[in-house]
Amino acid sequence: MKLSVGIDAAKTTHWAVAVDEGGRIDTLVADLRRLGGEMVIGLDVVGSFARFLEAVLLAEGFALVHTPGIAVNRAGQGFAGSERKSDPRDARTIAELVRTRALRPILPEADTVTALRLKVGRRCDLMQDQTRRLNRLRGLLCGIFPGLERGLDMTCKGPLVLLSRFVTPAEIRRAGQAGLVAHLRKTPHLHGSEALAARALEAARGQHIAVPGEAPTAELIRELAGEALEARARIARIDRDLERLLADHPDGALIRSLPGVRPIGQTALLAAEFIACVGDIRRFASADALASAAGLAPVQRQSGKRNGWRRALTGHKTLKRVLYQSAFCAVSTKDPLSRAFYDRKRREGKHHTQALIALARRRVTVIWTMLQRRETLQPNRKAA
Questions:
Q1: From CA 335, how far away is CA 324, in angstroms rounded?
Q2: Which domains does the chain carry?
Q3: Which three-class secondary structure state does DSSP give residue 87?
Q4: Over 80: is that where the pLDDT of 78 sits?
Q5: 19 vs 252: CA distance, rounded Å
Q6: Fewest CB atoms less than 10 Å from the CB: which of 131, 216, 228, 247?
Q7: What value does the mean pLDDT of the chain take?
Q8: In angstroms, how far is the first alpha carbon of the chain from the final one?
Q9: How many angstroms separate the CA atoms of 325 and 42, rounded?
Q10: Using one digit for the tens of pLDDT, what is the confidence trace for 94-153?
Q11: Helix segments in 145-213, DSSP class H
């Protein structure tokens, strides 16, 4: 007897429902083993608070599949009383999806993949916080010293070091060129100190008015600049950790052999994000399945006499961004094969975004084949 089990995972109570091939149900609370037979278990949550549940079920040898939350939501609306949301009802829906649909398996992951996923997530959080922090800093600085705000690039380290000590025009004029340069040179590996100090001093000489509330605003700017410098250091440490983890991962060298995955600056972020999103490539039966999961496969739109194709609006947003950005980097860095494919699509009448999406879709086939065959990219090799 083959059983399809749906589990609605939660922080305190997991609801499980088992459905046999005929669709009969048996509500479970604890022991799945007593049911016997061949069993496939569906989970609507992967990772997060369901990580422990996944680990326990995989350790016991159960076959797990992922039922996306949106699929559970849409399927639940087809049952009677669809507006009555409950975990037992969702568990039944998950079990029916496991029984009737081909779902993507959940496989055991190595510690390296988990570490990459955690590091990538932490880096994303830090970058979002950094963006909000720098926008707040620019807004405050523009209110009391607009000339300096126009002359500084807050994404660079030098301006943040300057603002961690000197903010107002009077402070900068009192410090002078020598004082500003001396402060900047206290930070190692900081280039262009003289030019930065000169720009700040020129802006200070052009403003002699003190805006009301200047002192407390400057104090907050100094605090934000210090926090921004600390965030930059944390992000740099995470980037070094990602380089080390990619060196240990068996797919790291294969993925980074693809042009565009290692962009300018030699960062490992795109390769790390790809592994964090995909995990084990065996979860995807074909390159088409991987492209569909990323939302790069075209979607047919057919109704009556109308029949056409459109761009997919669903899919894993992060994975789609990684593949699109790597295609953009490959074209920008003048990779000959990527550039030739892009130019051919442009000659066919596609605009820039459409050509890049088509290139990203083609690269999905390449990277899936590389990982399946365990071979690095060989640009001169032609398909039979």
A1: 15
A2: 2-108 (3.30.420.10), 113-245 (1.10.287.4070), 253-373 (no CATH)
A3: helix
A4: no
A5: 40
A6: 216
A7: 87
A8: 44
A9: 32
A10: 888 988 888 899 888 889 999 999 999 999 999 999 999 999 999 999 999 999 999 999
A11: 146-151, 157-163, 169-184, 193-205
Q: What's the pLDDT at 253?
A: 87
Indicate the residue type of 271.
A
Instruction: Check whether 39 has a pLDDT greater than 70.
Output: yes
Which of 100, 69, 117 lies closest to 249 in space, CA to CA?
Answer: 117
Could you tell me which residues come within 8 angstroms of residue 105 by beta carbon, excluding any fewer than 6 positions away? 63, 64, 65, 66, 282, 283
E strands, the chain, are 2-8, 15-20, 25-28, 38-43, 63-66, 104-106, 299-303, 306-310
Cα(137)–Cα(10) distance, rounded to whole angstroms?
40
Number of residues assigned to the chain: 384
Whether this prediction's pTM lies above 0.85 is answered by no
> Which strand ranges, in their side-by-side order, compose the sheet holding 38-43?
25-28, 15-20, 2-8, 38-43, 63-66, 104-106
